[in-house]
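Tutorial, part two.
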Amino acid sequence: MHWYLIHTKPRQEHCALQNLEQQGYECYLPLIAVEKLRQGRLAMVEEPLFPRYLFIRLEEGASGKGWGPIRSTRGVSRLVSFGNEPARLDDRLVEQIRTHEGRRQPQPLFTPGERVRVTQGPFAGLEAIYQMREGENRVMVLIELLSKPVRLGLAPASLRKVG
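Running the prediction step on this input gives:
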């Protein structure tokens, strides 16, 4: 048995995973916790570590159930291959990803020192420097007003990354 790589349709990783598992295939979709804005609040959500990709374990040469049913599975775009050969992965690589997946720290939406733009309220359009998260509904930023840095507390939904 070896691991192979499946390319999924956009944002269909979970759909492809579920449909492949229902057909009896062993699959793996590595996930990572990320901070996202949800209804104006910062929330932790799990996203695929490798967007549009998942791993599938098949018998040598993929002769087990064949590629046909996999290709026609809802959510699957194609099999990753080089020429006519499916891209086979080293088992150790997949095991390393599995081992480290649970140990990863959640990725914040903004990082301290990052440049952001205020999109709402009286400071809309101004650039600021993200400082830190303060509670669930507030973040602290530095905005230059009258040639002096001023620390402000804003709703996370009122900020966007610059660039």
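The longest strand covers residues 31-38. In part three we will examine how such features are distributed along the chain.
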